[in-house]
Amino acid sequence: MLARKSMNDIDSVQEKRPVTYTAPVLDVDPPTVTILEAPNLLASNGDTGNRTWDAALFLATYLFADGRRFIQDKSILELGAGLGFVSVFCGKHLGARHVLLTDASEAILNTAKQNAELNGVDNIVQTSVLEWGTRDFDLVSQSEGEAVSYDLILGSDMLYEPRDFPALMSTSQDLFARYPKIQMLISSAVRREETLQSFLDACEENSFHVGRVLMDPPPEKDQLGFFHSTFYEIHIYLITKKCRLVTDGKVFLDLMLNKQDNPSRSKAYVAN
């Protein structure tokens, strides 16, 4: 009896159902995205791709409020996209020209494709298997059969395990080599400072310029939509290979990643 109950509980946690997310705006008809997912799934289950996490909701909040310039009329590639909430939002409400949603799991991508169809953006949002660290991935537009020049890489809650960072760096290097003007926005909950620092160190070792976007998650009581927990800090980082001095103050890039230890070597930059 106990074993049967345990299995039922597991099935309940893993069961997918439609979840509708509403953008943070006071409007009689606010933008929404509906995602088939397992909202009760815990990170400890080791099946993290089957639900939408707080870092993705905060990234969408930033893009909606202050980051549309990164998306409007641009071609977007999302790494570790899972079920595709951010990609679908970009295609449905932020004016992306083309979005390629990638993940290592074909099963998860099958659901992501359903989510694109569910939201009426399957003509804009496409899916492709991409396993970090492999060099033979194909980024050809599946609907048109021709190459797309990507402008932006997106990623959220990808920084769980430092052992994955070499593969992530390898794939990032390949993408920056293919598309020299590309930029990357990564949103991550800071669960362990050591893990975040390992990622920043890996970026520095790979000659990436990294900086934190100057936006903090609003307190939960003040959130109007894309509701997300503030139990952990969530940071958004802009990553690029080519920089110029900041004048608008929207993004602060600490090239040395250690401002407190060496403030004289820290400068403010934003990607061209």
Query: What does the overall shape look like?
Result: globular
- How many strands in all? 12
- Secondary-structure element series: HEEHEHEHEEHEHEEEEE
| Relative helix content | 25-40%
* End-to-end CA span: 62 Å
The assigned structural class equals alpha/beta
Question: If helices are DSSP runs of H or I spanning 4 or more residues, what is the number of helices?
Answer: 6
Radius of gyration from the CA trace?
19 Å
Can you walk through the features of this model?
The chain is an alpha/beta fold and 272 residues long. Helices cover 28% and strands 22% of the residues. It has an 8-stranded mixed β-sheet. The protein has a two-stranded antiparallel sheet with strand order 1-2. It has a two-stranded antiparallel sheet with strand order 10-12. Helix 4 (106-118) links the parallel strand 4 and strand 5 (125-129). Helix 2 (54-66) runs parallel beside helix 3. The longest helix has 14 residues, at 165-178. The chain is globular.
Provide keyphrases for this structure.
single chain; 272 residues; alpha/beta; 8-stranded mixed sheet; two-stranded antiparallel ribbon; 6 helices; 12 strands; disordered C terminus
